[in-house]
Amino acid sequence: MSPERTRILAAAALALIAFALGTLTGHATAARRPATPQVTFVDGIPLERADTQAGALAAADNSLALSSQSVEQNPPLFARVVALAYAPSAHRTTIAQAATLRNDDPTDMANYRAGGRAVAVIAARRLDGYSRTRATVTSWLGGFVWGPRLTPRQSWNLVQTTLRYEHGRWLVVSSQELPTPAPVPSIVYVDGNNNQSSAFDTRLAGMTAPFYGNG
After folding, report:
1. Nearest 5 degrees, angle CA 106-CA 110-CA 113?
2. Fold of 41-203
3. Of residues 82 and 12, more confidently modeled
């Protein structure tokens, strides 16, 4: 083999090695690069940024659980949820409806002032419609209220939430309780004392509406 041909083959081999090393380095750098978070927290409120079906479901789950739990129990938190997770067009109506609800429910409001509590959970949900800019979700919402002078009770509702994707995140356009009766789980007594406020206070201490994941 001539010296010239040897030099050409050597140069080609070095080029291939350099290409392979560059590719591997690029893959390693990409693997080390942190993924863009799909959920960000602003003032403690989770905001879903994934423009996907899973993202729409997570946005509906979190906004519904947080707003349902705080609307009477913690009005300042409810106002923050509306300001951050609801579309601007829905702000005024949602705040007005919440004020009416509190005025029409003196029993629960007195319970919260006395130290009563509430927890909301999404037991199940269904994506009824989805596009890259809009989604509709039906949720099976459970609510639990108890207090020092209130017998613990539960309520179950079907709620339809409409969302719009704008400003880089999902925002609630509307959230309405459906007139369809929701299924209600039967009450199961384990030791005969678990439907008392003291049991709720101790077993559920520190618990709040759950964060339902990353879209």
Report:
1. 140
2. Nuclear Transport Factor 2; Chain: A, (3.10.450)
3. 82
Does the predicted model carry a pTM greater than 0.85?
no
Residue in the structure block whose two tokens are 């199940």: 124
Which residues contact residue 37 at a Cβ distance below 8 angstroms, ignoring those fewer than 6 apart? 49, 214
Q: How many CB atoms lie within 10 A of CB 147?
A: 21
> Residues 178, 136: contact at Cβ < 8 Å?
no
Closest CA to 201 of 119, 121, 102, 109: 119
| Contacts of 72 by beta carbon, 8 Å cutoff, 6+ apart | 101, 102, 105, 108, 109, 112, 118
Structure tokens at 26: 């690029």
How far is residue 175's CA from residue 171's CA, in Å, rounded to a whole number? 11
One DSSP character per residue, 25-84 reads HHHHHHHHSPPPPSEEEETTEEEE---SHHHHHHHHHHHHHHHHHHTTT-HHHHHHHHHH
User: Under a CB-based contact definition with an 8 Å cutoff, are residues 135 and 129 in contact?
Assistant: yes
pLDDT at 17: 34
Nearest to 144 by CA among 191, 97, 185: 185
